[in-house]
Amino acid sequence: MHTYESGLKEEMQHQSELSMTINGVPKSRTVKPWVSLLDYLREYLDLTGTKKGCDHGQCGACTVICDGKRILSCLTLAVMKEGSEITTIEGIAKDGELHPLQQAFIDHDAFQCGYCTPGQICSAIGMIAEGKAKTRSEVKELMSGNLCRCGANTNIIDAIMDVQKGAGNE
Fold it and tell me: What predicted TM-score, i.e. pTM, was given to this entire model?
């Protein structure tokens, strides 16, 4: 016979202790193995800067930086990133300061409604670190996985190019 207690006990057996570093701080939580990294960040750690757009890996709103590379957190199981270093929009700059890309987004009016901005900025940080985007057309292509439904794409590219130029990556 299946009772509430036996169901709860069974569900508890299907959980894993997960440890990773989030925004420079070690975190450990018990999670179900089917929880996405996006839901882990938002629901378990209350880091709501990373957005849930499509939940199918098509919009880029959920982009975070994992071990220095940009990933779509909605398509990644949290347990797959055991021991990883994750940086979200909340962790890209010290409290009270702006990351250069955040400032550039303000300067170039690249945030419009703001919903896609955290994913855009995390993706741009990862793209710049990859060192592959040297020209405007390369930046446009490598950022094409991050959608802006407000039409700020030109301003977003301008902001990224401005930061790259300032970093000597032109």
Answer: 0.88
| Contact between 100 and 124 (Cβ < 8 Å) | no
Range of the structural domain that residue 64 is part of: 16-89
Q: How many residues does the chain have?
A: 170
Tens digits of residue pLDDT in 105-128? 999 999 888 899 999 999 999 999
Q: Are 86 and 65 in contact (CB under 8 A)?
A: yes
Are residue 77 and residue 20 in the same domain, yes or no?
yes
Whether 10 is in a domain gets the answer: no
Residues 6+ apart with CB under 8 A from 127: 70, 133, 139, 142, 143, 160
For residue 35 the two structure tokens come to: 């929880």
Q: Which of 65, 89, 62 is nearest to 75 (CA)?
A: 62
